[in-house]
Structure prediction request, 759 residues.
Amino acid sequence: MKLFTKPKSDEEKLIEGCIAGKRDMQRLLYDLYSRKMMAVCMRYAPTSFEAEDMMQEGFVKVFANIQKFKRDCPLEFWVRRIMINTALKQLRQKSLMTVSHETEEVGNIASEGVNLTGYSMDELLGMIQSLAPRYRMVFNLYAIEGYNHKEIGEMLGISEGTSKSQYSRARAILQGMLERQEKIYQEHVISQ
Amino acid sequence: MSSANNHKRNSLEDEFQRRLFDAEARPAPDLWARIDHDLTVQENKDYKKRAVFYRQLAAACFVLFAVTGALLAYYYSGSLNQPGTQPGIAAVPATKPATTPTTVEEAMQVYATQQEEAAAKAYTYTEQTATTKQAAKAVGIHQGEQPVPAEVTIPNDGPQAGDYFNVAPGYSPYLGYTPMPGRSRGYVSGGFPGNAAGATQGNLFAPGNRYTQIITWESITITFGNNAPATGQQIPLEGQSLAARPKSFVEMNEAHQASSQQAAEVAQSKLAAQQPKSVEAATSANSRWSLNLAYVPSVFEQNIGLPDPLSMPPQNSADRFSLAAAGPSVNASKESFQNISAARDEYKESTQPAYSYAVEAKAGFKLKKKLKLLTGIGYSESKSRSRSNFIVRQFWTKPRSNERYELSPTTYFTSALNDGFSSDSVSVARTGDSFDTEYKYRHLTMPVGLQYEHDINKDWFVYAAAGVAANFLLESSVSASNQEVQSVNYTADDYDSPFRNVQFSGNGSVGVGKRISPNLTLALGPEVRHYFNTLVADPDKAAAPQGKPYAIGMNMSLNYQLGNSRK
Prediction:
């Protein structure tokens, strides 16, 4: 018999409150992660309205399934994964994930010395949102979330090769955007 | 070169990850309100799913209760209808009387006697009720559903000599008055108990021996078969008024018509009154039903004593006495007599209630805002315990060889449950080591009761409940921890069980309750359960004094309100 029990962490109390369906605890969890998750959803959605829809559905799923959370990772990661899955599902439902098994020859684009410090958050998000949905998905999952192509293929229901191909295309497009932005910036500096 | 090869992470990926992975963005201010709304909708869906489940569960429980009740009723009605167990129609002996009339004159005389006796004993002033029909069926009497022709033609292969038959007018000696609507007059031909020898003499179906009676009423009862009632024997017609017997058949007819009209009016008014209620119940069924699970740990007092040898009248000699007031005499030594007294005192002192409990699953129906009807099914295990140093040893003596042999030793309690000690001699002996005896009774219970609740505040309420329960004995046992002593165990099917198979009890409880959630309440309070009968089926025959058992316990119940709880 345990005489002393480890005091519950705040996160544990939060989880238990959400499992019990306490609305104040659910609100607390929402306040804790809503900003980060909004940024996640905005990376996947083409517009902020659709990002809010994703986030709304994602949080409802979080509260409905929080009793399944196994505590084997930080709660934030679990919530993020639900948000990503929700985004993928929504985009799949909108038939935006129809993948053409194209193997585009985009060449080996050099990306040495990339520095995004001069770009604002909105500019970076704008670049990603301007990508085609399938490219946006693969780029987000690979470059930002850190999944490998095999995992991405499983998540999106495509082959690993297709994931690599689409990522290369997305990367090339973004590289082009950055180069154009750099060119404009240089021209602006020279003119001054 | 294929683009598939360009998948290695470099500064672009790292830079995007550094800037965007932990990025934050402000969501719309009303986003939480939308999520809150979605959560509420989802909770309602879940609630509805649960409600459907619990309703189905309640329906299943109801069906289970109904089936169980029907089976038990069928089972016990079957056992009650065994000959000799219950006075009544079913116990009418099927044997013929020793003396039967042999001539027409005798038969007519017997019939006249029957009519006189029937007039004195029984009179049925009801329509062909189910009771009457059932009674007729039980004794092989067939009541005419259709108008009977004036002349009843008896086939040759019909009744034979020795069989009984009876053709009676509306006032039948066997069935009483059995009017038939639609006929006012009729002829009846029939006969009387025939000749047991089977000879033509006295056989009313033989040519020339026909008896014809003209009557002014139409209801006819014809009885054939060997299991007809014996001469002079009347079917008991309990609860039927003799005082209101009409003097003529015309009065009977009028009374019958008036009764029929009144019954039809009552039925119509009941139907009319029931219709809006059923509609109302259907519309508000969501909030009226509830499920109740109760657990009642209790202490049980079986209220069975042991016979006092001093109160028993002495028999033929000073050395012989009977342990039963009206039972057979018993031989016992003086030492045994002293041991009996000691065993009795010891039993009185050492008997104590053991842990007993009852569990019940009930469905509740809210009759009024604060009044609830609860019924369901339950199980109870009642135990009592005593410590003893004495065992009862009984001996038989073989008549021819005069050899004495011993029956299995029993507890004094077990021996005192029947009508005394039926063996040739009894010895109540002291054992070396004391042993424990446990008395256990398992019942299947079917409770029904009312519960009144009054709110103290939002979360707390007080309640008072009262009801009755039918308790069906599943098993009873008297087990001793001494290897030498025979333990007894009776099931519901054991005919030699001295314990009552079905008995009724009343229970009352008061307490407090707390609302855990809008639909779930927990109630706690003391409960008293008192049985209306003794545990032993025939207390008059038992040597031991028998009281009515009771149990005092603590009722802990969970109540789940189906639908909206605060309607």
